[in-house]
Amino acid sequence: MMAKAKDYEPLFKEINRQLESHKIIVKTGVIIDVSVINTPTKQQFKNR
Asked: What is the pLDDT of residues 4-41, one digit of tens each?
């Protein structure tokens, strides 16, 4: 897990290098942290 911002730097440099090789230049960006977790399934019961 890359917890510190500086840990992302080599990854961003490589991504930018590949984009620039296709003449795509990114000026700004946003990092979005997304986590997906399993949750128990809720059973729905009819009111009796």
From this structure: 667 778 888 898 899 999 998 877 777 777 787 887 77
The DSSP call for residue 5 is: G
**What are the start-end ranges of the H helices in the chain?**
9-21
CA distances from 15 to 5, 19, 27, 34, 44 (A): 15, 6, 13, 19, 46
Q: Which residues contact 31 (CB under 8 A, 6 or more apart)?
A: 8
Q: 48 or 9, which is more confident?
A: 9
